[in-house]
């Protein structure tokens, strides 16, 4: 058996054992720990094969796992690969063809519907075909350059010969996925690792000096840093249900030079949560809601195979509960920034409709932030006031 056949066999074994309960990258790490004889090149090839398999979603389930692994490499890659040279040289010669022409060679149609089985659940503003086919491409890594350090950042990238793209009229730099940013850019205060679509949510904030803002599901604090960079004099409260996450946030804030904020652990779904807030009121509340994460599945394509449709409604109920509990703490005339990294209508437009029907808030601006086409996540963000 050749090395390449061994790679396909190992990837087939992984897919047979993987049940979706762990993120795929954690499962792969455990698998390789149990097989220490595999070198870094072996691990890289096998991992790539497995990810290619899951990028195909529901496409061509009638093929064997091994056949889908090789077809996945053909469909997802655009330059010649040693694996295809060895196992399917006739495909490798056609690797640069558009997806539609590759599909014709495979005699199996490659459509968004075949890849992503939940297209009927999408927000109406999303291009279903473009979104579904985007799973065949690995998203890029994005950084947001801070403190006017763009020239210095680009100089270091150029010196390291790292390809990059500066997105038009922004501080956003796109890099190949897997770029060792922390090694290249050792001054952490110069940048934040943040998806391009996530960065775009900041266009809805409009903070003013000395206003009080609450990032109520702060997680690692990316939106709060974005807010503070826009208006350093904002009085900020950050909260999250997980103490460990807030500890990570505080470390990230320290590296970014963010000071003068309050942090607290808070379960926004608890019946008695409102009693813990007293008479506090905020000019702005950022509700980056827990969600399906479906707009980020290009980074975790295994989710397409293991996510259950009924989970969308469960997330919506959670979002309704949180919105119900936090909206009363918004000042009259204040702004609620509702954000998800979901592509599903129930979590997006339907949730905004719920907020409007159950409060005096009305959507002012925002909507779907499409990441497909630029290698970014797809998100939803609106400002209500």
From TrEMBL:
<dbReference type="GO" id="GO:0001510">
    <property type="term" value="P:RNA methylation"/>
</dbReference>
<dbReference type="InterPro" id="IPR001678">
    <property type="entry name" value="MeTrfase_RsmB-F_NOP2_dom"/>
</dbReference>
<dbReference type="InterPro" id="IPR049560">
    <property type="entry name" value="MeTrfase_RsmB-F_NOP2_cat"/>
</dbReference>
<dbReference type="InterPro" id="IPR023267">
    <property type="entry name" value="RCMT"/>
</dbReference>
<protein>
    <submittedName>
        <fullName>RsmB/NOP family class I SAM-dependent RNA methyltransferase</fullName>
    </submittedName>
</protein>
<feature type="binding site">
    <location>
        <position position="288"/>
    </location>
    <ligand>
        <name>S-adenosyl-L-methionine</name>
    </ligand>
</feature>
<keyword id="KW-0949">S-adenosyl-L-methionine</keyword>
<feature type="binding site">
    <location>
        <position position="267"/>
    </location>
    <ligand>
        <name>S-adenosyl-L-methionine</name>
    </ligand>
</feature>
<dbReference type="GO" id="GO:0003723">
    <property type="term" value="F:RNA binding"/>
</dbReference>
<dbReference type="GO" id="GO:0008173">
    <property type="term" value="F:RNA methyltransferase activity"/>
</dbReference>
<dbReference type="InterPro" id="IPR029063">
    <property type="entry name" value="SAM-dependent_MTases_sf"/>
</dbReference>
<keyword id="KW-0489">Methyltransferase</keyword>
<feature type="domain" description="SAM-dependent MTase RsmB/NOP-type">
    <location>
        <begin position="119"/>
        <end position="385"/>
    </location>
</feature>
<dbReference type="Pfam" id="PF01189">
    <property type="entry name" value="Methyltr_RsmB-F"/>
</dbReference>
<comment type="similarity">
    <text>Belongs to the class I-like SAM-binding methyltransferase superfamily. RsmB/NOP family.</text>
</comment>
<keyword id="KW-0694">RNA-binding</keyword>
<feature type="active site" description="Nucleophile">
    <location>
        <position position="341"/>
    </location>
</feature>
<keyword id="KW-0808">Transferase</keyword>
<feature type="binding site">
    <location>
        <position position="240"/>
    </location>
    <ligand>
        <name>S-adenosyl-L-methionine</name>
    </ligand>
</feature>
């Amino acid at each position: 058996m050749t090395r390449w056949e061994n790679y396909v066999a190992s990837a087939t074994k992984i897919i047979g054992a993987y049940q979706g309960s762990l993120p795929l990258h954690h499962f792969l790490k455990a698998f390789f720990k149990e097989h220490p004889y595999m070198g870094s090149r072996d691990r890289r090839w096998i991992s790539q094969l497995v990810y290619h398999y899951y990028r195909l979603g529901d496409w061509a389930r009638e093929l064997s796992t091994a056949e889908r692994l090789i077809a996945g490499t053909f469909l997802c890659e655009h330059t010649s690969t040693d694996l295809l040279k060895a196992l399917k040289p006739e495909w490798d010669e056609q690797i640069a063809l558009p997806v539609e022409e590759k599909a014709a060679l495979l005699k199996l149609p490659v459509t968004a519907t075949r890849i992503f089985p939940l297209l009927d659940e999408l927000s109406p503003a999303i291009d279903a075909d473009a979104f579904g086919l985007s799973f065949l491409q690995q998203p890029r890594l994005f950084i947001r350059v801070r403190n006017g350090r763009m020239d210095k950042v680009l100089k270091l990238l150029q010196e390291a010969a790292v390809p990059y793209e500066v997105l038009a009229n922004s501080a956003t730099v796109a890099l190949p996925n897997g770029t060792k940013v922390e090694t290249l850019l050792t001054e952490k205060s110069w940048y934040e690792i943040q998806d391009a679509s996530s960065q775009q949510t900041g266009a809805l904030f409009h903070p003013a000096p000395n206003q009080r803002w609450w990032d109520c599901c702060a997680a690692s604090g990316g939106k709060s840093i974005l807010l503070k960079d826009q208006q350093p004099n904002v009085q900020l409260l950050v909260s999250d249900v997980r103490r460990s996450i807030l500890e990570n946030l505080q470390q990230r804030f320290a590296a970014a030079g963010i000071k003068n904020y309050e942090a607290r652990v808070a379960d926004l779904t608890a019946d008695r949560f409102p009693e813990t807030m007293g008479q506090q009121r905020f000019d702005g509340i950022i509700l980056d809601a827990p969600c399906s994460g479906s707009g980020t599945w290009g980074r975790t394509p295994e989710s397409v195979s293991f996510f259950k449709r009924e989970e969308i409604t469960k997330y919506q109920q959670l979002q309704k509960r949180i919105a119900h509990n936090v909206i009363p703490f918004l000042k009259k005339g204040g702004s609620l920034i509702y954000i998800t990294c979901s592509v599903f209508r129930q979590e997006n437009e339907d949730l905004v409709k719920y907020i409007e029907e159950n409060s005096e808030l009305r959507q002012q601006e925002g909507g779907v932030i499409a990441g497909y086409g630029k290698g970014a996540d797809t998100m939803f963000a609106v400002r209500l006031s």
